[in-house]
Amino acid sequence: MRAIDKIFNKLKEFDNETYPEGVVPLFDRIEGTSFFPGGDGLWKYENDITDIRIGGIMVIGHNFDNVSGFKKSLALGSESLACPTWKNLRILFQEANIDLTSCYFTNAYMGLMNSQSNIGVFPGSKSSSFKKQCLDFLEYQISIQQPQTIITLGRFVPPLLAQLSIDLDQWKKVKSFNDLDQAEIQIIKHAHFCENQVISNIVALTHPANRHLNIQKRKYKNLNGHDAELAMLREILF
């Protein structure tokens, strides 16, 4: 069985009653390029990739789309590669020499926002039981892919991921990128997950959808902005 099919089968443990108010389960699967759980979490544009690369790169966003956005992607057969998230990720990863086909793109929270907008506070984050189930599921995904590198997107993901590794304790109370940059903990190397069965290097990046608003605030060593995040990526990859 493919790794991605194992993950989708595990996702079935989220029954309809699992999802809190404001969040609904996904009702289909995007065939082309998409973050999981909307699709397979793979870069499928002009290539024949069919499964997650074990030992590759895991890219973690906060949550997927809302219902109307998901329907548009289903009709298109892919998430829009011209949207800010994919457009800015592609530019950054190309400059960092990251092969998109080596990446598994996923999210910390499962489900769709049942609202007109796909931005703002994710309703599922208010439910402690749902949050725990999503984090347990994220740990399962890590156990399957065994990523050598984990890239988090946005300021809300680092404190969530920190719940899964004692080596990320410094990230548990992080509320902003300024907290990360001032403490010089943008990068955590050799973090242990899944009862020490997986060891990964991790970097916290701004969310590509809002990159134009936040990138100039980033600092790393003697670098600022885009150059700082590019250096962070190169530090953990090479």
From TrEMBL:
Recorded hits in Pfam families, A to Z, give: UDG
**Record's Gene3D superfamilies?**
Uracil-DNA glycosylase-like domain (3.40.470.10)
| Stored InterPro entries | Uracil-DNA_glycosylase-like (IPR005122), Uracil-DNA_glycosylase-like_sf (IPR036895)
- Looking at the record, the residues that make up the Uracil-DNA glycosylase-like domain are 87-217
**Superkingdom in the source lineage:** Bacteria
Query: Which protein are we looking at?
Result: Uracil-DNA glycosylase-like domain-containing protein
Q: Which organism is it from?
A: Acinetobacter chengduensis
Q: What is the lineage of its organism?
A: Bacteria, Pseudomonadati, Pseudomonadota, Gammaproteobacteria, Moraxellales
